[in-house]
Amino acid sequence: MRLVIYEWCCSGGLAGPDRELVLHPGDDVSSLAREGRAMFYAIVADAVRDGGFDVAALVDESLPLDLPAAARRVVVPRSREAEMLVAAALEADGVILVAPETAGVLAARVDAVRAAGGTVLGPATAVIRLAADKQATIDALAAAGVPVPAGRALAAGEAWPVGFHLPAVRKARASTGCDGLVMVRPGDPLPCPAPVATRLEAERAGQPVGVSCLIGPSGVVPYAALVQRFSLRPLPGYAGGGPLRSANEQRRAEGLAVRAVEALLRRDPDAARAGWVGVDMILGDRPDGLDDRVLEVNPRVTTSFVGLAAAAPASLVRAIVDAAAGREIGPTALAAGFTFTITDDVPDFPTRRAGP
User: Fold this and answer.
1) Per residue in 289-328, is it b (16+ CB within 10 Å) or e — as a string?
2) Confidence category of residue 347, pLDDT binned at 50, 70, 90
3) β-bridge partners, 57
4) Average pLDDT for residues 147-176, to the nearest whole number?
5) Average of pLDDT values for 161-178?
6) Where are the domains of the chain?
């Protein structure tokens, strides 16, 4: 199977015209680039280790990125990443495409490939566009009975509402990672109005958890649930993941993630179902799960893939392909106490085939 790997930061996006749409003053460019690079390396390495893919990786001409010998480098000239993506996709059987949802960048790339006749192993663009708007996502989840935090939308330039419950979190309605995230505790000065539309929500006490799901014609399969860890200085950023505390938390997290993804998929029931989706949530202290809340849905490969691919006994790219084809996906078999940390180091590429 001929497979194309595209990650916006590494495949020319940061050097292209959409940079100004995705990045705003104060955004942590280094964090975005670091997570993008980590995902790119992990996906390429994981596809190569399967042994059953002809892997082509799109690489920005200005980046000195070393790829495993079995992967073919497709050099992307400056400002031509969208064009090169479509051209490569038309020579392949499938594309794994990672890009920020911000400003419709992810949806636009997926639309371009599919309009040209290529195959993206990811959700329908209607689902991507819905998930890209954090307020619209919350509204859709709440309408489907999925528990979400209390909150409201703020227009660009709108002041923090007087009397809003604290502690609270303000996040850009269209953003990736922790860009634009503001946390306000009781006694803190209220922040200035944001220059972009935001969502303001009451902070929930509990564990931040991310659940990775595979979706295909046969349904939504929760692949792994991990406690999320974040660095707080200088700006919040995803730092890695670790095991949940109990089987009950695992069951609650996976069940809630499936409900959330299914709620979004029902908004466009005729659309193709495929790909990797991440669901972020807070698990509260109540064993019955009544304090659990879904925060957002990421309609693409997420940074947790980096740690999961390193620990999984078989290729996760193979699992994505199998899910898209409607084949059965086996249960996760991660080591007990599995944990991982995102660093600036370039990971080593596996040199042996992994699998049962």
Assistant:
1) beebbbbbbbbbbbbbbbbbbbebebbbbbbbbbbbeeee
2) very low
3) 5, 73
4) 92
5) 86
6) 2-122, 129-146+205-341, 150-203
Res. 236: pLDDT tops 70: no
- Residue 309 contacts residue 232 (beta carbons within 8 Å): no
Name the nearest CA neighbour of 148 among 156, 163, 137. Answer: 137
Instruction: Provide the 8-state DSSP code for 98.
Output: E
Under CATH, what is the fold of the domain 129-146+205-341? Answer: D-amino Acid Aminotransferase; Chain A, domain 1 (3.30.470)
| CA neighbours closer than 13 Å in the CB half-sphere of residue 188 | 15
Beta-strand ranges (E) seen in 108-248 are 151-154, 168-172, 182-184, 198-202, 207-216, 219-231, 237-242
pLDDT number for residue 348:
38
More confident of the two residues 351 and 292: 292
Note the pLDDT of residue 346.
44
3-state percent breakdown (helix, strand, coil) of the chain, nearest 5: 30, 25, 45
CA atoms within 13 A on the CB side of 280: 25
- Which residues are CB-neighbours of 92 under 8 A, at least 6 positions away? 2, 3, 4, 56, 118, 119
Residues in the chain: 356
pLDDT at 89 over 50: yes
Tokens of 2: 């001929």
Q: What separation in angstroms does the CA of 48 have from each of 60, 80, 302?
A: 20, 26, 19
Report CA Rg, the chain. 19
What letter represents residue 178's amino acid?
Answer: C
- CATH placement of domain 2-122: 3.40.50.11770
Longest dimension (CA), the chain: 59
pTM of the model: 0.89
More confident residue, 14 or 113: 113
- At 29, the pLDDT band (50, 70, 90 cuts) reads low
Average pLDDT over residues 131-138: 95
